[in-house]
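Appendix B. Raw example, untouched.
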Amino acid sequence: MGAAADDRAAGEFLAGIHVGDICGGTVVEVTRSQGVVVALDGFSARPLGVVRPADVSWRWKTAVAVQVGRRITAEVVAVDLDERRVRLAMTATENPELWAFLTSLHPGEILSGTVAAIERFGVFVALDDGPDHPVFPGVGFITIPELSWRHIDAVSDIVRVGQRVTCEFLQFDDWNGEARLSLRAMQPDPFAVFAEGVTVGQTLHGQVTKVVPFGVFVRVADGIEGLVHLRELAGEPVEAAEGIHQVGDELTVVVTEIDRERRRLALSPAR
């Protein structure tokens, strides 16, 4: 079969494959970058299936989970007719109940569960309606920034193991097989509330909370801090803010910019 005919045959074969189908095949190559290359049953001219490293297993590394010559079954997650490729997920057939649960979720959906474990990088949540995870304490996961709108010194200030939580579903993390959640989404954004009540040019009173090389941060409301840039602090050029203000100083400032999208507040000392 020539290259053109082979390509046409591959296109015709792939036209009959759809997302969600379960396909079988034989592993012909395992690479660190591309993942697992699979010769699909029913088409022997060349391998058409690819399993990305993240889609091989949530339990094992790629090299441990699969070897050349192994027979596999996997779910079709994408069909690329232009590239003549089928993207497969072995995770779907390895953990069908968990895969089905995660793929059924929609961004913005509200989920409830119990805090199962607290780590330095986030919080695991055992979801009420979710299955067990093959590796982690819970199928739900909240990263540190999604715990609260405000800066927190310790996760234990917000949640504790065994606590009931209700969160918003953000996305399916197919690398770890997790439902990424947001606890802060269940509360009003204090910056948005603050921004509704102030205008550019308004004078506010606050306290310096942090001194950095490029300026000082001033708390002007509960949980709301704005930056007074170094160039605004003195009437003449200076190299650092440390000699001008210290943490705890009281300042009267003027609002110069309110960036709602990036949640940033720019301030200038009141003259």
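End of appendix B.
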